[in-house]
Amino acid sequence: MSLPKSVDVVIVGAGPAGHTLALSLHQSGCQDILVVDGQHRTANTSRAAALHAATVEALERLGLADRFVAKGRQMQSTTIWTKGFSPIASAGFRSLAKNTKYPFILGIPQHVSEQILSDAAKERGIIVHRPLRVVDLKPHAHDNTLTDVIFENGETIRARAVVGADGSRSTVRSICGVEWNDPHGEVNANVVDDSAAAANMIVADVTLTAPPSLRPDAINLVIAPEGQQNALMIQYLPGDPYPDAVPAGTPVYRIASGIPAALGPPPRAPEVAYLQGLLDAFGPQHAVDGAAPLEVEHALWSSRFRTHSGIAGAFLTSAPGGAGPVCLLGDAAHIHPPMGGQGMNLGMRDAAKLGPVLARYVQAAKGGEAGATAAARADVEAWATQRRKRALEVIDLVRTIQSRLWVPNKTEYIFGVLPYNPAWIQFSVLSTLTSFEWFRSKTAWAVSGLGDP
Ligand SMILES: Cc1cc2nc3c(=O)[nH]c(=O)nc-3n(C[C@H](O)[C@H](O)[C@H](O)COP(=O)(O)OP(=O)(O)OC[C@H]3O[C@@H](n4cnc5c(N)ncnc54)[C@H](O)[C@@H]3O)c2cc1C
Questions:
Q1: How far apart are the first and last CA of the chain?
Q2: Domain carrying residue 389
Q3: Do 47 and 172 share a domain, yes or no?
Q4: Is the CB of 136 under 6 A from ligand 1?
Q5: Does ligand 1 lie within 6 Å of residue 205's CB atom?
Q6: For residue 47, how far is its CA from the centre of ligand 1 (angstroms)?
Q7: By mean pLDDT, which of 7-11, 101-105, 193-197, 356-360 is the weakest?
C-alpha cells in the first residue's frame, strides 16, 4: 500500500505502546495517523504476562477492558513461600475493590494482549504498515515544525508529530540523540559478579508433567533454600497461549528465576534441561510443605534478561535541527527488570495519557494560531515531564521489590562473630507487616498503578 505524502502523527512501532497510542489518538479525534513497524508480524511469544488495575482502567476508557478480562485470569494475590514461614500473602488485591472495578492482576500473555489491540485497531480502520523501518528523521525543508520521516525503502512522509514506540533499542531515540542511562547505574549489564545479585534472570513458559500444589490464582514466589540467594516465580498462564504447540486445555506455566552468579550467564533461550535444573534447585518443593518436585515437560518459550534499568534523558525531543515534537514512549523511554510486571503496563499508560494531549497539539498546530499551539505544546511537555517522573518511581519500586526478594538466605556474621541470617530478618519483618491489612493494601496499591496520576 502506498503511503500518503503527509499525516498528522507517525507512530514508529506497533507493540503494545504504539497500538495503545493509535487507539487513544483515534478516540481523541486525531485519525490522520500512520503506524509503521519494521517487523513482518508481531512476535507470538508471551513476554509480559500481567496487566495491572490502572492499565485495565485505561483500556476501559478505550472501550476494551471487557475483551481483556474475558481472555485473562484474575490473579488474587502474590504469595511468598519461604521455608520456616507460613506463606506470606504480600498483596491481596481484593483490598483494591473500593478503588477499582478491577481488584486483581490480570494474567494474560503479551501476544494475546497484542492481538486484542490489533483487532481493535483494525476495527477502527487503523492499519499497521509492515515491514516499514524508520531510518532517519529530518526537519521538513520549508517548515521545521514538521518532521520528514525517512524509511529504509527510501520513502519519506511529512508529520506534525512523531512518536518513537520502537522498543528499548529505539532508532528514534538514537536519531534524536537522546541519552539513555541506568538511573542507579548499579548493575553493569555486561558483567556478572557476586555484587550484582540477580544480574541475570530467565523467563520461560513451560508445561509440567504434573500441576504444582500451589493456588492457580496466585503469583507464587519461592525464596531460595538456605545457603542461596535467589527467588523463583511460578504463575499459571490462562487460556491456550500456545495452540500450535500443545493441545487445547494443556496448563501452561510461567517461570521466572534469578540466576545466581555462581551459575554463570544463562543461555539466551534456556531449554528443558536448564529449566529443570533451576526448578530442582529453587522450585517450591524445598519451601512448600508437601510440594512434590516439578518436572518440565516442554519449554514453549524462554528468554534470558539482564536486570538493569534504563531511562531516556527526555521523553519529548525533536529531530536534529527541527522543532516538531518527537515523543518517546514504552520501552523506547524506559526499561527495568520484570519483577512486579510493570514495564509494558507503564508503556501502555504512557500511551493512553499521550493520546488526548497530542491530539490537542495537532489540532492547535493545524489551526495555525501561535498562542494555542504553544499552550498545547506545553501540555505535551508536561506529559513528558510527568511520565518521566513516573517511570523513575516505577524503576525505584521494581528495585525495592528486587532487593526485598533477593536476600542472602545464609548465615553471615557481624564483626565476624555475631551470626545472623539476612533472609530470616527480612521475612520475619515481611511476615509481621503482611499480617496488617493496611500494609497489604498499600503494597497492592503500589503494584496496581492506581496512584499513577
Ligand atoms: C524476550 C522478551 C521477554 C520479555 N519478558 C517480559 C516479562 O516477562 N515481563 C514483562 O513485564 N516484560 C517483559 N518483556 C518486556 C515487554 O515485552 C515490553 O515492556 C513491551 O513489549 C514494551 O512494549 P513497547 O510497545 O514499548 O515496545 P515493543 O514491544 O518492543 O515494540 C516495539 C516495536 O517497534 C518496532 N520497531 C523497532 N525499531 C523500528 C524502526 N526503526 N522502524 C519501525 N519499527 C520499529 C519493533 O519491530 C517492535 O514491534 C519482555 C521483552 C522481551 C523482548
A1: 39
A2: 6-73+103-185+309-404
A3: yes
A4: no
A5: no
A6: 9
A7: 193-197
